[in-house]
Amino acid sequence: MKASITKNSRAKTGKQRKRHFKYYLRLAINEPTTLIGLMLVILFSYIILAPVISLLTDSAKLQFEDSMRLGAPEGSITSYYFWQVFRSTVSQAIFWRPLLHTLTISLVTVVFSLLIGGLLAWVLTRTNLWGRKWLSTGLLIPYMLPSWTFALAWLSLFKNRKVGGQPGWLEAAGFSPPDWLAYGSVPIIIVLTIHYMPFVLMLFGNALTRFDSQLEDSARILGASPRHVVRLVILPLMRPSLVSSLTLVFARCLGDFGVTYILGVPVNYDVLATSLFRASTSRQTGATAVLALCIILLGIASVLIDARMAKQAKRYVTVGSKGAMSRIRPLGKMRIPASILVLLVFVLCAICPMFILFMTTVMRNPGDFSWSNFTWDFWVGHNLTTTVMPDGILLTKDFWLSVWNTLWMVGITSILAGFLGLMVGYVVMRVPVKIVGSFLRHVTFLPYLVPQIVFAAAVLSLFAVPRGPVPALYGTPWILLIAMTASEMPFATRSGIASMIQLGKDPEEAAQIAGAGWVKRMVRVLVPIQKGSIVAGILMPFISGIKGLSLVVLLAVPGTDLMTTYSIRLLDYGYQQAANAVTLMICVVALVGTIVVQKLTKTSIAAGLGG
Asked: Residue 159, Cα to own-chain centre: how many angstroms?
């Protein structure tokens, strides 16, 4: 009898589960969020996941250009490219030496950025330095500009005749800089430190503002010396932000292309990013894929370390709310020297590079400051002696074409990124099929784990040749639109998810009860409420796209040049004055764009640093 009852109850429970499953299935199908989520899954699988998979599979597939020489059919499984990169006679040149250079530059840059940025963060947040508010914003300017801006300024100042062309300012003045100062690891490390030091300043400075200075006071009351307070109290509590700064700067240095291209490639000083560029432009598809895989693994390792430290950060949480203090300590007699020193750092890192770039654009001969040497010809002149550019940059059709390409391509991708980021946030928070939201959350974060030049190689791998109904896109604006949109999704989707978490379901459910359909709820409720998040989600990718080089350098051709690639192309031609002029225009747009974003979103990049 008991067995029969148990059997009937199990059958009834099974029927109830079946009815519940059908109900939720019908709800999931009828709710537009599920359909939108599935469409987004297909879209991002195609423009993000598929290119990366295509690139990585190229490392194990025999390519057409090697099939005849190796006597094997195209597409067959092979380990040849791993042997070529790791064990062949050219492996030192294409992998091992660039790997050593990459690790050396990245690690040394991290150390210098941490020391300088950490010291500046401490002075700006915890002392009565003169001009704290102004300097807090000014010292972040180098991070708003393209990293290769400083490389061009360095080249204008220290260039010697080793690679030909016009001399630098110092050589024109009678002093020939040694090769190690003009090119190679030393200038690359200095330039990258200038660019990434503000990044550490932001992360570490914001952590310091949340640090309760009463903990320091307690340690001093107990008899601890200043050295012991720093070593036993401050540094352990600051460890998560320090390690986060270290790993993120390291990850960004891995994929930095422009600086090494300008200061390293002329003397055959390669890093993994430039080695990958050489392999890709010389159509070594298999070697490109192996190099990309190595850079991806290094990038993922650094991001995983950062994620692990973020999880461990709760071990360093201190108790404090209204009673917490961030006491400003007087510098006393050191106030004037410290203020002058920080101001000098600002002048050297932000003002001098821009000044040098501008001066090179109004000089006929570098380093000659006589009045007769100054000219506006490189901006608005006619009948110049240069072959490819007979007119000044502002009168050159190719320049305005690059400006137009930059504005419309970056504008469209920014709007797409902002809209898609909001939709991903909406789906992640609303979709009843949780696996869809989880997949979108992870696949849209993938471009962050892949350095931009590697992601560009991945996009090129998939879209350079016809595949099914999709024609070859290389040489068209479409490949740039796809790459730029996909690369901005990590930040756009995180912004969308964060804004949807804050919104909640109540406003939309109220509109649904009132009879509003899904489209009307989006137009009348969601978009007006999330207007600020949408604007930020559009403007931030716009600024990033304006100054980006690593992503587009493999994908742009003369007809689809952006301002960044046009500047590098001019540099390749030897027209440094014109290249510097274009770079200055990029810097102006990036700075103005950053200010506009702060005004519209009512935020400040210097928030928490005294700014």
From this structure: 28
Query: What is the DSSP code (8-state) at residue 61?
Result: B
Widest distance between CA atoms in the chain: 111
Alpha helices in 264-351 (DSSP H): 272-281, 285-312, 335-346
- The reported pTM is 0.82
pLDDT tens profile 498-551: 777 666 667 777 777 777 776 777 777 777 776 666 676 677 788 788 888 888
pLDDT of residue 320: 45
| Own/partner long-range contacts of 367-375 (Cβ < 8 Å, ≥24 apart) | 367/167, 367/168, 367/169, 367/170, 367/171, 367/172, 367/173, 368/172
CA distance 253 to 105: 8
Distance from the Cα of residue 464 to its chain's centroid: 24
Locate tokens 């990366």: which residue?
52
**Residue 588 CB partners (closer than 8 Å, separation 6+):** none
Nearest to 359 by CA among 195, 181, 580: 580
| Helix, strand, coil % in the chain, rounded to nearest 5 | 75, 0, 25
| Tokens 């061009």 belong to residue | 152
C-alpha distances in angstroms, 264 versus 45, 197, 386, 572, 577? Answer: 36, 21, 25, 13, 20
